[in-house]
């Protein structure tokens, strides 16, 4: 070691004792020219998720003081210590059995429910009883009270999408159980869907989000109609679930999309600084992520990490493919951190 290096090492040590650090200690590779993520592209098979839920069915109790939720999280192998699906978002699958109540609570994390199968369950968000049907999207904005209850006959399964790791990184997680075992259903809640292109002027505190219910029976015909027009080069036919209160993203931290690829349709390749969690709601296809093909079919989920080139293809010659997805662009855009690039070189070669 040269004398100069020895002196710097000694300086570093002296500074460290005072909780001070020289910027020269940052390794050269720690300042990449382009965004770099530890999140890995990955696909989870429906059969594995479903089997896990069935096995947990009789072993996990959702009562208060027990597990409270029968939920499986999708863990990204690149950030496995976090047990999250990406560095900003979580996709989990929840099952509730007839007669069960997942007890009420609230938290600073925002949540979405995308309903996959079953009927007769409802979620109560701040007193609004929302009966779940396949393909519906239901919002639980941050800090709203919510419980799930099942009045039907078959087990019910849905996706829980949350911003947990983002809220965790800001160190503002708060969680509170409801003071009673059940939440009352209120009759005076308004369904924002009734307002159409208008929104009520109220004296209530300015809210950024509401417990909204986007029904599949309303969404699907619009998506089909969209798919009769010109496709988007990177998305096929896609719609964002907007928040009618603000005209902005689905929730302040999350944006949800529904996307249709017509039989045989292929998109062009692009990349962006947002991360996207996908769920194949119907059909089957392939998404190529940084050169690696991920084949998906109904029920599978996958993640496209930030700044990874990706393109989608519907492999069926007869059937539409429909992807539900959730992305973290709303936490990037306000700070000028959202970037998009494309078209890239086609990676499909199928
Ligand atoms: Fe919750
Ligand atoms: Fe994309």
Summary of the model, kept short:
With 350 residues, the chain is mainly beta.
Q: Can you tell me about this structure?
A:
By secondary structure, the protein is mainly beta. Helices cover 13% and strands 32% of the residues. It has a six-stranded antiparallel β-sheet with strand order 1-19-16-21-14-13. A six-stranded antiparallel β-sheet has the order 2-3-10-5-8-12. It has a five-stranded antiparallel β-sheet with strand order 7-6-9-4-11, with no helix packed on it. Strand 17 (284-289) and strand 18 (292-297) form a beta hairpin. The chain is globular. The relative contact order is 0.15. The structure holds fe (ii) ion (2 copies). One fe (ii) ion is lined by residues 234, 270, 272, 276, 310.
- Overall mean confidence score, pLDDT: 93
CATH level 3 topology? Jelly Rolls
Associated small molecules = fe (ii) ion
Per CATH, the class reads: Mainly Beta
């Amino acid at each position: 070691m040269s004398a100069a290096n020895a002196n710097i090492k000694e300086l570093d040590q002296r500074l460290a004792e005072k909780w001070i650090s020289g910027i020269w200690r940052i390794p050269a590779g720690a300042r990449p020219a382009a965004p770099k993520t530890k999140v890995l592209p990955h696909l989870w098979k429906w059969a594995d998720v479903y089997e896990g839920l069935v096995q947990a069915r009789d072993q996990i109790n959702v009562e208060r003081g027990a597990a409270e939720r029968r939920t499986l999280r999708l863990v990204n192998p690149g950030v496995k210590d976090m047990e999250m699906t990406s560095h900003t978002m979580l996709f989990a699958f929840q099952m509730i059995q007839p007669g069960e109540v997942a007890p009420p609570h609230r938290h600073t994390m925002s949540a979405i429910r995308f309903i996959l199968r079953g009927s007769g369950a409802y979620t109560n968000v701040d007193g609004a009883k929302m009966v779940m049907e396949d393909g519906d999207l239901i919002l639980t904005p941050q800090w709203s009270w919510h419980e799930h209850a099942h009045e039907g006959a078959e087990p019910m399964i849905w996706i829980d999408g949350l911003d947990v790791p983002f809220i965790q990184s800001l160190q503002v997680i708060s969680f509170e159980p409801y003071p009673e075992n059940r939440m009352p259903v209120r009759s005076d809640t308004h369904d924002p869907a009734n307002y159409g292109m208008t929104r009520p002027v109220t004296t209530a505190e300015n809210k950024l989000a509401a417990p909204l219910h986007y029904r599949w029976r309303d969404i699907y015909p619009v998506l089909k109609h969209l798919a009769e027009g010109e496709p988007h080069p990177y998305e096929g036919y896609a719609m964002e679930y907007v928040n009618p209160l603000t005209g902005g993203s689905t929730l302040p931290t999350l944006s949800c999309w529904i996307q249709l690829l017509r039989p045989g349709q292929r998109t062009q390749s692009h990349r962006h600084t947002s991360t996207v969690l996908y769920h194949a709601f119907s059909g089957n296809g392939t998404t190529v992520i940084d050169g690696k093909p991920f084949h998906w079919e109904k029920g599978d989920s996958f993640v496209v990490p930030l700044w990874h080139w990706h393109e989608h293809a519907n492999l069926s010659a007869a059937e539409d493919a429909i992807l539900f997805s959730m992305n973290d662009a709303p936490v990037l855009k306000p700070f000028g951190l959202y970037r998009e690039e494309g078209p890239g070189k086609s990676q499909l070669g199928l």
